[in-house]
Specification:
single chain, 713 residues, alpha/beta, nine-stranded mixed β-sheet, elongated, disordered N terminus
């Protein structure tokens, strides 16, 4: 963003090594613990919320195991009873088509409490094998229930959705409920589809960006937990960062719950490699500072056992870990929640089993043709998060005479290994080799193919259902064509399309006119020697391959439809190769390998590149003007912030002076009050003396009013 003021950056530098706030839950809340559960206050009754929060805090501090087994079993009974009641109440509200998130009164469903109870019973089950996770009632069709929610209030609707997803996850994982697993996938797919062009993971029908981001923070852990890729992650991280910068500029304001969950979302983005900037680190570090202060105050006050305490501690550990702080609270929750971190749990047997379920458990209708005509080769190197999605797109093809080969190019990523093992167990042919690069993996799969046509599909891309059918029809209709592709729809971090592609000479010499995923004849592949594996910098293997075809007299074509989907993601090979220095080296090598083609068409290539540059000049000039305008605005804003900071310092000094004056006046008031009290006491004393003297004076009959002389009696 580049607009973070210097004073906020200075807070970051001061707070980077602040020690953790939590030492022992028992030190703070031991008086709340009873045999049946925990109480909100030392003298209060046991209640479901306090018991759940206490259990989760004990788990977070590593002290849950110190509680006796019988006591934990008693707590589990308390939590289960409350959980079953809350789950039935939620299902009843959804079944009656009531606007659950707007319900009021004692009979209203309470999704946050239901979620808390699910997490607490899971924590107790993990620490106490005798505890069994209960089977919870859920609506027959969760997706229909989620669709009926009033998404104008995205936060409340996301709260209900998160609760339903937690119920389904528990049934899928601990009850081996295949239908529950399917409903989880369908619900997440619908949420992703409803995302549209926005960066939110929920339907945005309110127009409130902050609410949409808060709702996204509630749903995002479920995408991470089920290893479901999400789109527009960079834009989402930038939106969160911009909102947090505005919030944190309110120096001295209390830490709002919305700010806490947005810090959690930014921590997830940081861990995923998004938004790696000084501003991101500074905002997260200021978040650590503010959370630490808030938790210090809360723990010293010894207030009620509220869910916010557990949420703040979990988020604190998450963003500390994102900043690389080794003293960060270790993740304890394996189910999606605030502060959720996925990867560390993969060392646990149960978590590995769960990961395999979600990584490779999607329904794959594998083609089983006895006479396939095309083989789809999927080279895979550490892309276990995406490869199942690529295979799903192959299994949905209208052409069924297909064979599939996955080539594991020496993956050393735990997730990828687990995914490929699970896919192999389900009948997918997986060939493993030592890491040799993309070209070698494609050649290995093509060599193993026994079909006349081969399609190399990268493990993070997708093909639309009619891709193979339409492209093979084009190849069969034109025997002189060696390879054929299609127009391209990008997805992920971009929604651009690539059309009007001409994979023919001389156009393809100036720019690569087709994409990596095409269908080619295996005989033509053999005659040109396959993909060239000697390219010093990876990234242009496909362009080099097309030029080899054309150099040998073959032709290529592109079906004029959007049939191929190319994923744009952070930290991909494209990021690696599209820097000016690397691209220059790549093109030089391409020219060396196909020198005769470039020499014969040098006039066209140079002219085409110059015309492209001329075409881009107005856009570049406009971009420069826009950048200059934004830099100017940034400068004005920085000046305004500096001025505001100066004014704030002046006001602070003035307030301090007023406070000092007020204190002096208060001391004067107290002095005068004390003096008045002393004078009052003196007056009372004098009155008493006067009354005493009056009593001692002789009685006189002198009538002063009549002027008579007094006589003594």
């Amino acid at each position: 963003m580049g607009l973070l003021p210097t004073w906020l950056l200075s807070i970051w530098k001061r707070s980077r090594h602040r020690p953790d706030v939590v030492t022992s839950f028992l030190d703070h809340f031991a008086t709340r613990i009873t045999e049946r559960g925990l109480a909100a206050t030392p003298a209060g009754p046991v209640d479901l919320q306090s018991t759940c929060v206490g259990v989760l805090l004990l788990e977070l501090s590593g002290e849950l195991g110190t509680i006796g087994v019988e006591q934990r079993l008693s707590w589990a009974a308390t939590v289960e009873e409350g959980l079953q009641f809350e789950a039935r109440r939620l299902c009843a509200a959804l079944g009656d088509n009531k606007p659950t998130q707007q319900s009021d009164g004692d009979d209203a469903a309470n999704p946050p409490l239901t979620q808390l109870a699910i997490q607490a019973i899971d924590a107790l089950a993990l620490s106490t094998p005798e505890v069994r996770r209960p089977k919870l009632p859920t609506p027959p069709d969760v997706l229909s229930a989620v669709r009926r929610l009033q998404w104008q209030d995205s936060v409340a609707s996301a709260d209900v959705t998160r609760c339903l997803l937690l119920m389904l996850l528990q049934q899928a994982e601990f009850g081996d409920d295949v239908e529950a697993e399917r409903q989880v996938r369908n619900t997440l797919t619908w949420l992703a589809d409803e995302q549209g062009a926005s960066c939110y993971l929920v339907p945005d029908r309110s127009g409130d960006a902050v609410k949409a981001l808060v709702a996204t923070s509630q749903i995002e852990p479920f995408f991470a937990y089920t290893f479901t890729p999400t789109a527009r992650n960079t834009r989402r991280a930038e939106a969160v960062l911009a909102q947090l910068e505005r919030e944190l500029l309110k120096d001295g304001s209390p830490l709002r719950p919305d700010t806490v969950v947005l810090l959690d979302l930014l921590g997830s983005a940081k861990m995923a490699g998004l938004g790696i900037t000084a501003e991101t680190d500074a905002v997260l570090a200021v978040g650590v500072e503010r959370l630490t202060i808030a938790l210090d105050d809360r723990l010293r006050a010894g207030g009620d056992l509220l869910p916010e305490l557990w949420t703040q501690l979990s988020v604190l550990g998450h963003i500390q870990a994102a900043l690389g702080d080794e003293s960060a609270l270790k993740p304890t929750r394996r189910l999606p929640c605030a502060g959720y971190r996925r990867v560390p749990h993969l060392h646990d047997d149960r978590a590995r089993e769960s990961a395999q379920r979600w990584l490779a458990g999607r329904e794959l209708d594998l083609p089983n043709s006895l006479t396939p005509i095309v083989t789809v080769v999927v080279p895979c190197y550490n892309l276990g998060l995406y490869v199942t999605e690529a295979l799903e797109s192959v299994c949905r093809q209208t052409l069924r005479d297909v064979s599939i080969i996955v080539v594991d190019d020496g993956s050393d990523d735990r997730l990828t290994k687990m995914t490929l093992e699970a896919l192999q167990a389900r009948g997918v042919r997986v060939i493993s080799q030592s890491n040799a690069g993309l070209a070698a993996a494609r050649n290995r799969g093509t060599a193993e193919a026994v079909t006349p046509y081969v399609c190399c599909l990268d493990a993070d891309d997708r093909i639309r259902p009619s891709f193979l059918e339409k492209i093979i029809d084009a190849l069969q209709a034109q025997p002189e064509i060696a390879f054929a592709g299609s127009w391209v729809q990008m997805f992920g971090e971009s929604e651009l399309t690539l059309c009007n592609m001409k994979p023919q000479l001389p156009d393809i010499l100036a720019f690569n006119q087709t994409v990596c995923t095409t269908v080619f004849r295996k005989t033509a592949w053999a005659s040109v020697g396959g993909f060239h594996g000697g390219v010093s910098i990876p990234g242009i293997e496909d362009w080099d391959f097309w030029l080899s075809f054309l150099e040998h007299g073959y032709r290529g074509t592109a079906v004029p439809e959007l049939l191929f989907e190319y994923r744009i993601r952070i930290n991909s090979m494209s990021d690696y190769m599209y820097s000016p220095e690397r691209w220059d080296e790549l093109v030089r090598e391409l020219i060396r390998r196909h020198g005769s083609l470039f020499r014969e068409n040098v006039e066209f290539v140079v002219g085409r590149l110059h015309s492209k540059w001329i075409e881009q000049r107005p856009w570049l000039a406009q971009r420069e003007r826009a950048l200059h305008w934004w830099r100017t605005q940034a400068g004005h804003l920085e000046d305004a912030l500096t001025s505001a900071k100066g004014a704030l310092e002046q006001q602070t000094a003035w307030v301090d002076e007023l406070e000092s004056t007020r204190a002096w006046l208060e001391s004067q008031r107290q002095n005068w009050q004390r003096l008045a009290e002393e004078r009052g006491e003196q007056v009372l004393h004098l009155d008493a003396q006067l009354a005493h003297l009056e009593g001692l004076r002789p009685h006189s009959n002198y009538d002063y009013a009549q002027g008579q002389r007094p006589t003594l009696s």
